[in-house]
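Notes from the pairing session

We agreed to fold both candidates in a single pass and log them together. This is the raw record for the first candidate, unedited. Please don't reformat it; downstream parsing expects exactly this layout.

Candidate A
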Amino acid sequence: MVVRQTMASHPATRGEANEALLWCIEQCHACAQACIACADACLAEPDVADLRRCIRLDLDCADICAAAGACATRSIGLNRGLIAELLNVCALVCRLCGDECERHAESHDHCRICAAACRRCAEACGEAIESLRR
């Protein structure tokens, strides 16, 4: 909600907002939070050694989602192609992380929740990329 309000108040937007980009920014930040929480929960599991790849992907995904969300927030007036490439990388890491979390989803609810957040973020990135090409 705050993202929408602040982006709409930006002098360069003149009150017009790219809804797909705003949705993407929100999903990037939500995914980063879900990945951080999942990594922390994985570290508390008794089978932590089996979750190493999941933890690493969670942390990579969190960092990339946070960076993509921040850069997309500052995207007004920037090279749309650059933002699209960053969102493409974000979508890729979200797919990889989501796939890994899905492997553990039956045993760990935090992985199921994280996988869903990753899928939403990857989809939102794809929609935002398309909107930037218009």
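Candidate B (folded immediately after A)
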Amino acid sequence: MTFDIQDNKEKSQYETTVDGTVALAAYELEPENRIVFTHTIVPQELSGRGIAQSLAKHALDDARTRNLTVVPQCAFIASYIKRHPEYEDLLQK
């Protein structure tokens, strides 16, 4: 399943709306081209659809495109990176 994920720069979050409900991966941009992912929220009524994984993939792909270093304070984003080692190069060394 694919989702229309957008970077809502005003709210500092990648988001998608499914069945009228918003799911999101929030972030903070920091100096020196760093993006800190603070939390991922998928409301209960949307769980089990792969939305969180799609948000993480989209956000990390966008960080790569923008040459940003990723700081995964969000437990979900951190675990996603562990399960997908192709994103480990984005982590701060």
